[in-house]
Amino acid sequence: MTTNAATRSAVPRALLNKVPEVTIWFWLIKILCTTVGESFADWINLQLGVGLVATAVIFTVVFAIVLGWQLSTRQYKPAAYWPTVVVVSVTGTLYTDILTDQLGVPLWLSSSVFAVALAAVFGTWWARERTLSIHSIITLPREAFYWLAVLVTFALGTATGDWTLELTGWSPGTSVLLPLALIAIVTACWRLGANPVLAFWLIYILTRPLGANLGDWLAAPKIPDQGLGLGTLVTSLIFLSAILATVVYLTFTKSDVIEGHRAARTPKYHRPARELPLIAVMAVATIAAGSLLSWASAQPHTNAAAEKEGPNPAANANLTPAQSTANFPKEDVAQFRALVAGMDTALTKNDQSALNTAVDSYEKAWDDDQPKLEKLDKKAWGFIDGQNDAVFTSVRETKNPDAEKQAVRTLLKTLGG
């Protein structure tokens, strides 16, 4: 026993690797983690009721704890590595949600900011270490760069996934197809000889919008062309259970462990002579995807109309409170009314933090029910949505107490309060 321990401690760090071998197991659990990041972040933010910023702070602390555990290991351990990925997926999602929902930053801008940030991380990593390969994670600085890149890819993937939905008006299920197609193209290029490091990071980034839209599709209300109606909690539990089962399996079977010098060997499919042509293929695929998104944005759909026409025309409709809610489920209206009443209470107490939390919770509940409500009564939905915009603008942008009270109490009256 003593001899074995001494032997293990004498193993050069260059023979140890802090990430799993990239196999089908890696990508399976990565997609599971990205889906959890979307659904669990939504559920936690709503249930904690402390607001996006406070929730993000909590998960940042949790991320620091699990990352410390991961950094303290001398080699890859599934029980340390994958919980870190799960937590960083939730944390990255919350960072994007803060920019979008709390600060009102447009998704195209947050996507651009995170893309630049990721380029900066990769550039600094390369300048210092001369490698971006995950199989070279054999020092603490390289691992630090790796986890920073992972965090930014989750934030970027969340922003681009949501931007795709906003830009095109596609349902979450339809939106899954675009990153899936791009992943298939990059994978084919890798098998034909493309640079394996480039292919890995492209696929890693693309799995985030894939998982985010998959999570939205599973959790969205069960109506045509929207979702399966599982809800964020059930979706999170299903995928967390799948992650746990996979981690336990990998812990015992070691199916994803890199041993000896396997990490340093020449990639099986790499063909340097084909790199440039295959980069051109991936560039063409990127241009084609951009053209598709541009075309979809130009087609008539809710978001495009809102951007071109300004406020929803239905916002100016003259509907009574009874007309506004007549065709909506009573339990949904009661939930909205209770949340708006919470805003009114916070305004009375001059509690801005509680007001922000109530607004976030209401917006989340309203957005979750949008497909169902808009289908039941599009005119009434547009009328209330216009009043919602007045509330969001007064609370998050103008921050004028009188405007806040007027907007909140107008909405409360419309909801029968």
Automatic annotation (TrEMBL):
Region: Disordered, residue numbers: 303-326
Stretches that traverse the bilayer: 24-41, 48-69, 81-100, 107-126, 146-165, 177-207, 227-252, 273-296
Top-level taxon: Bacteria
Keywords carried by this UniProt record: Membrane, Transmembrane, Transmembrane helix
Biased composition (Low complexity): 311-322
Cell inner membrane as UniProt keyword: no
InterPro entries from the UniProt entry: DUF347 (IPR007136)
One Pfam family from the record: DUF347
Protein name per the record: Membrane-anchored protein
Organism expressing this protein natively: Kribbella koreensis
